[in-house]
């Protein structure tokens, strides 16, 4: 049998680079200005392309927003997480994401002021955080409530630290945030469900 060389890798198409530039500019603009104030014209200017190219690829501002904020939280595999340390693991993971990824900042800023943005954020957290909560919580029927409580902690800290920039929250070290929030997230996920007062 004749030996054949593998096909060389396909060089990136110009359209791939254009899409990447548009998405990068959109994420930064949505993060800085929010959904309503961010314009296709401004995003196109940031991407150094004509506004018609943005519309060609994404059809509308709503379509661009959905594509720009299509995010994988890359949560750890629940089967590989020690249930006794899931709180600190999650807080540490989210801090890594917030520090490195402007998409989450854009998502939070827009989600706080725009219904479509809020629904987008709800979907991301529902689809990605809920399975982990189901895996570690004592009663899977409570998983949605527990996941929502976890989200309240990580999103609240992100809002204070990265959007509103409350100086005491900004001044906290990563290790301090993990130590403060980790036990709270742990309790939300794994503690017995509280019995309401009569």
Mean pLDDT across all residues, rounded?
A: 86
Tell the overall outline.
elongated
**Low-confidence sequence ranges:** none
What is the H/E order? HHHHHHHHHH
Return the domain count. 2
* Fraction in beta strands: under 5%
Number of strands: 0
Query: Any idea what the radius of gyration is?
Result: 20 Å
Considering DSSP H and I runs of 4 or more, what fraction of the residues is helical? 55-70%
Class by SSE composition: mainly alpha
Number of helices: 10
Please outline the major beta sheet. Answer: none
Distance separating the two termini: 81 Å
Notes on the structure:
This protein is mainly α and 198 residues long. It folds into two domains: 14-68, Homeodomain-like (Arc Repressor Mutant, subunit A); 78-190, no CATH class. 70% of the residues lie in helices and 0% in strands. It is built from ten helices and no strands. Helix 3 crosses helix 4 (61-68). It is elongated and about 60 Å long. The termini are far apart.
């Amino acid at each position: 049998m004749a030996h054949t060389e593998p096909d060389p890798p396909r060089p990136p198409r110009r359209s791939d680079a254009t899409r990447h530039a548009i998405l990068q500019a959109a994420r930064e603009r949505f993060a800085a200005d929010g959904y309503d104030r961010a314009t296709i014209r401004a995003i196109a200017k940031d991407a150094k392309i004509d506004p018609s190219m943005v519309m060609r690829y994404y059809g509308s501002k709503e379509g661009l927003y959905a594509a720009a904020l299509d995010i994988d939280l890359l949560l750890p595999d629940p089967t590989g997480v020690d249930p006794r340390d899931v709180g600190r693991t999650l807080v540490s993971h989210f801090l890594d994401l917030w520090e490195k990824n402007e998409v989450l900042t854009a998502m939070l800023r827009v989600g706080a002021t725009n219904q479509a943005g809020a629904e987008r954020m709800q979907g991301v957290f529902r689809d990605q955080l809920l399975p982990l909560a189901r895996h570690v919580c004592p009663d899977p029927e409570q998983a949605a409530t527990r996941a929502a409580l976890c989200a309240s902690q990580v999103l609240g800290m992100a809002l204070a630290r990265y959007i509103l920039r409350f100086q005491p929250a900004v001044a906290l070290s990563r290790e301090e945030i993990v130590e403060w929030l980790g036990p709270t997230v742990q309790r939300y996920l794994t503690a017995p469900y509280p019995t309401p007062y009569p």
